[in-house]
Amino acid sequence: MILTLHPSVGAADYLAACASLSPPAAKRMLLVGRDPSAGVIPSALQENGFTTGSPRADVIIGLPGCDRADVRRALTANPRADVVHVATRAPFVGVVALHKSGTNLVAALMRALGYDVSGEGTGPSPYPDGLWERNEAEYLPTLGPDSAYVVHSLPMPTVGGPLQYPRPLFYLWCENAFPVIYHYRDPRAVVLSLIRYLLKQNASGSFTGLPFHTMYARVLRSLPTAGKRLTNAIDNLDSYLSWSFRDNAWLLDHPDVLTTSYESLVGALGGGRDDDRDLAVAQLMITLGVSGDPTGMAEQAYNPHARTFSQGRAYGWIEEFSDEHLLRFQRRYSDLLERYGYPERGR
Fold it and tell me: Which residues pair with 95 in a beta bridge?
C-alpha cells in the first residue's frame, strides 16, 4: 500500500496512516529523508512500537523532507514494504511511450491512477488532420488538472542539427516542473509487434494514415514466410529503431525521468512477473504522489481487448526469433540491447 500525506503533517498523521494499513503495518520501519520535526515524528513512532535498525523494513516512512527518488530506492530494497510518505499529487504528467512498446498498457495504468489520458497512441486526434504532433502547441494549453499527455518520441534538440526544433511538450517541460515517464520495450519485441500490426492493418484496410505503414505493409505481404518477413524487418528498420530507441536514450539518464518497461508492467498474465509489476506500479505511484494499492491499480491496466493488442506476451518474441535472427539483430543493434539492458537472448 502507498499512502501520501500532506507536507504539513505531524506525528499524529503518521501514526494514523500506519494504523489504517490493512493488515496493520508490522513494526520494522525505515526512515527516509530529512526530519524537520527535530526528532518528534521518529520518537512518536518508536513510542508506539516501531523499531529501526533492521536490514528489512515492513513500512517505509518518508519524512516531510524526503526526496521521492530516495523513497523509490528504499522500496526497491524492500519491495514488500508499505510506504507512508509526504507528497502532493502531480497535476500533469508527460509520458514518452515508444511506438509499439505497449502504449495502451501505460495509458490504462495512468487512467487507473486517476488521470485523463490523451496523445499519440491513445485514440483519434481531435484535429482534422489526425496528427497529434502537428497540433500539440495548440492542444497542450487546453488540458486541465490531472492530465497525462502521451508522445511516442521526445528527442533532445540539437543546435544546427536535424532535431533543431523541439516539439511543444519539450518546451513545456523546460518551463514547468512535472514528472515524465519513459516507457520502452525490448526492441526485438517491438519489431515483431510492428510486423503483426502492419499485416493486421493491411488485411483490414484500417491504417493510421502514415505512408510508411502503407508501403512497408506491402513489402511484408509480398514475402512468403514469417521468417523472411522478420529478416527483412531486421535489415530495413534501422531508421525506425533509431527514431524510437536512439533518439530517446537520453531520457534514461535524466534524473527527473522515471523509466518503465513493458516487461516490468505486464505481469504474469502477459508473461512477466506480478512482483515486478507491483513494484514498478508502486514506484510510479510514489513519483506521482498517488495513494492506493499497487496490485489493484496494475490489474486494471492489462487489457487484451485493446485496439492494437496482438499477443501481449513480454517474451513471446523469443519463440519467433531463430538463432540466425538473434545474431542478425545483435550485429546491427547491439548498442540498443546494451543501452536498454536487454540480454542477448532475451532473458
Answer: 150, 181
> What is residue 114's predicted lDDT score, i.e. its pLDDT?
94
pTM: 0.89
Is residue 30 within 8 A of residue 52, CB to CB? The reply is: yes
- Give the rounded distance of the alpha carbon of 266 from its chain centre: 11
Q: What angle do CA 255, 261, 267 make, to 5 degrees?
A: 135
**Long-range contacts, 295-298 (Cβ 8 Å, 24+):** 297/109, 297/112, 297/113, 298/109, 298/112, 298/265, 298/267, 298/274
Say which range, 55-64, 202-211, 241-250, 262-271, has the weakest mean pLDDT. Answer: 202-211
Q: For 126, phi and psi rounded to 5 degrees?
A: -75, 0
- The Cα–Cα gap between 85 and 97 comes to 28
Edge-to-edge strand ranges of the sheet holding 29-32: 2-5, 82-86, 59-62, 29-32
Judge whether residue 20 has pLDDT over 70. Answer: yes
Cell of 299: 490489474
21-44 average pLDDT score: 79
Question: What single DSSP character describes residue 244?
Answer: I
